[in-house]
Amino acid sequence: MGILALWTICGQAQQTDPRIPKGRELVTYQLPKHAMYRPDWIDFNKNGKKDVYEDPKATIEDRVEDLLNQMTVEEKTNQMVTLYGYGRVLQDDLPTSEWKNKLWKDGIGAIDEHLNGFQQWGLPPSDNPFVWPASRHAWALNEVQRFFIEETRLGIPVDFTNEGIRGVESFKATNFPTQLGMGHTWNRELIRKVGEITGREARLLGYTNVYAPILDVGRDQRWGRYEEVYGESPYLVAELGVEMAKGLQHNYQVAATAKHFVAYSNNKGGREGMARVDPQMSPREVEMIHVYPFKRVIQEAGLLGVMSSYNDYDGFPIQGSHYWLTERLRGEMGFKGYVVSDSDAVEYLHGKHGTAKDMKESVRQSVEAGLNVRCTFRSPDSYVLPLRELIQEGGLEMATIDDRVRDILRVKFLIGLFDKPYQQDLKQADIEVNSDDNQAVALQVARESLVLLKNDDTLLPLSADKIKTISVTGPNADDASYALTHYGPLAVEVTSVLEGLKQRLGADTEIRYTKGCEIVDANWPESEILPFPLTADEQAEINRAVEQAKHSDVAVVVLGGNSRTAGENKSRSSLELPGRQQQLLEAIYATGTPVVLVLIHGRPNSINWAAKHVPAILEAWYPGSQGGKAIAEVLFGDYNPGGKLTVTVPKTVGQIPMNFPAKPASQVDGGVGMGPEGKMSRVNGPLYTFGHGLSYTKFEYAELTISPKVISPKQNVQVTVRVRNVGDRDGDEVVQLYTRDVVSSVTTYEKNLRGFERVHLKKGETKELSFTLTPRDLQLYNIDHKWVVEPGDFKVMIGSGSEDIRLEDTFEVVPYEGRAISNRPSQASEGQNQINPVLDNNISTVWEGQRGDYLTFTMEDNAKPKEIFIHWKSVAEPTTFEVQVSSGGGQFLTVYKGEAHPTNDLARFPLKGDLASDVRIMLTAGRAAIAEVDIPSLKR
Length: 940
Hints:
Elements: H1 3-16, H2 60-70, H3 73-78, E1 82-84, E2 110-112, H4 134-150, E3 159-163, H5 179-183, H6 188-205, E4 209-211, H7 234-248, E5 255-261, H8 283-301, E6 305-308, E7 312-313, E8 316-317, H9 322-332, E9 338-341, H10 345-351, H11 359-369, H12 381-393, H13 398-414, H14 426-432, H15 436-449, E10 451-455, E11 469-473, H16 497-505, E12 510-514, H17 536-550, E13 554-560, H18 581-589, E14 595-600, H19 608-613, E15 616-619, H20 627-635, E16 699-707, E17 710-711, E18 717-725, E19 731-741, E20 752-761, E21 766-773, H21 775-778, E22 780-781, E23 787-788, E24 792-801, E25 804-813, E26 820-821, H22 825-828, E27 847-850, E28 854-858, E29 867-886, E30 893-900, E31 907-910, E32 918-934
Parallel strand pairs: 1-2, 2-3, 3-4, 4-5, 5-6, 6-9, 11-12, 11-13, 13-14, 14-15, 17-25
Antiparallel strand pairs: 7-8, 10-15, 16-18, 18-21, 19-20, 19-24, 22-23, 24-25, 26-28, 27-32, 28-32, 29-30, 29-31, 29-32
Helix pairs in contact: 2-13, 4-14, 6-7, 6-15, 7-8, 10-11, 11-12, 15-20, 16-20, 17-18
């Protein structure tokens, strides 16, 4: 069924379904005249008095405890399960009289994907009349909510959960690029906006909990769900994940539930098997790569939901692990929300992992581990009934059940379900969901996600004035299916590349289109390992594309993949272009017509031939509903591409694992030279490196400064750099900061991304960018399994990509041991006695130091020194120094920089008058002797 036909059916249903209200009720949701609805509170338990849990002015914890104390075992256990929505498990779109005889007569924790339009993979969206328009959808969810509030004993509202990794999953909503595309924007502010829009549209539609962001870190490019990661850097995933979660949870409009916790994205050999048994990682890699984003997003964004994954790690299924779901997640990370299971994660404990004998034991293990809500495509009875048996038999203590239910209720109170359980502004849903303003943001995300991989002889941008005939071919040239699959909006209008070019060029340019080939051939994926000859039909279609290209000024070839080649449980055994796409590309290239390759797909492809022969390559990933327009703008220079790779593109699947960050020398071989006389035994290096991306203009970097150059393990470091657009076009540059712990107690990564900024520069414009490196950015996971900052040198590298470093410098971390410390172990034991020579009013006694040595002075309470006096006795030229101040906690900021010269007496140096608990003199270069120091308000 096509989208237009489905829309027609929905329109007809609006006229014929007698349950649909008329008139004003689709503008504002009208509550019935029921005694429970009071002017400023709701009598959920219908007892005629305001209980604590019904009082909006009471604290959330008091409300939770009051409600919990009133709940029966049946009501508590029902809160611990999800009921999948219409067409999945629930067979009713609106409440019926039979609901009073169903399990959920005592309430339910969540209803997932109710009326969101998704039926199952491969089927068109649901034609149910309540999936659209937005106002009618919100009205229907209100009606469902009304059953749980009015018809259950305690009136506990249900949490309406839904997917939302590229816009909220609905018949229509704002359709963004996939997370992989969003990652390539490197734009925190834009990702925050995506989160705000997704959460806002979800709430307007009636949903209160969105399953996003995905915090998995890409490690194996074969993996089917690579399209869903932001990239391979845990730092980038954390930075963008924080912004997405904050945007989603803006003003608690919805809860954000991140997935998949934990160690999910590096299954063996790219194979999934639905259980992803035993991801192949060391404990240190798990901590530094996979745990890192979850910890930061939980602590910095106040994440309210986590989805537990169904893989095991080191033999222990995450779903049944008290260590992961309680000790680490709640104890260490401070998670205060609720944990929901991923699909059949509970069932896999006995069905696949074999760590439980049956469903009942799997339930017990999951609840003991820390699971709050079971969520899968099964009847809620299959979980709740064995759960109740366990409680009755003493297999689970009521205190454990209460702890799990507390977390669920806390989230429901936080997102306002007990204060504003209904989405009453129905008209606003029609105005705002998938609005023009929101689509404009989606277009900007699509623009910024595009990465120019190659542009020989500046073939791009194309000139509309010079091109009269353009050939467009490839299986993704006129296809929009990549934007209309699960986990996002299902039936929006999508601009394909072909349509985008038509809109951009109009009638003045002739566009010749033929598909050229399908995404895959009839024998795929076997054809990846066993060649099959082209069929007559396949050859004929390629021939049509060739003839068309021969008579065109330029050929745009749009290749890649779609839901047939990537997605959940669709890992690959190859990274080559699937099907007949490579043959099509080579045939078009052979015509001699200039070729532009556009890639639309969900994972990096090993396009070695194209990288060597095709002059211009644009990487688009899955660019969302506005992707075709954005691509046309880039091809013809209306928009200057500025995206950078957040993934590594291997030359061959045989190189995997090949990703960022990597250990020193782990991505290359030692041999050089090909052929019989050479020493190479394998292809070396990636095809395209992390951070790579070109522009239609050029940028120069200058004036890298690091301050202070010597710090304690608790100090921040300020890094500044000036970037200038030296080309003839305005454009965006993604400035990237990498660090390297030069010498460390355990092997660390060669480059750690620790800062980035996407900056727009007009031609000729210069901007100074500033980055702050915190102690967290310098930590390593040491041999004792502790996060520490180790003393030593750290290299800072600034550039346009991980292998396009423009500037670098170093700073040093030295131990912090009191008022006067040195980086030389022979002097460390002297402690504070070292400071006496500069405070004894005797110029014949001196303190001597060299680069890295410093003196720290304790100040009186509330001291705000505006000057410091130093008697430099002798100086080995050139010697530089800094004066730093701390307001507590051991972190120092530089307030004065200067060059030291011998003085006859105390020389004055101005300070800023900042509040200071300590003042430090730091030698940053050279050697010097100091006779005396004086600081107003110095504590003696």
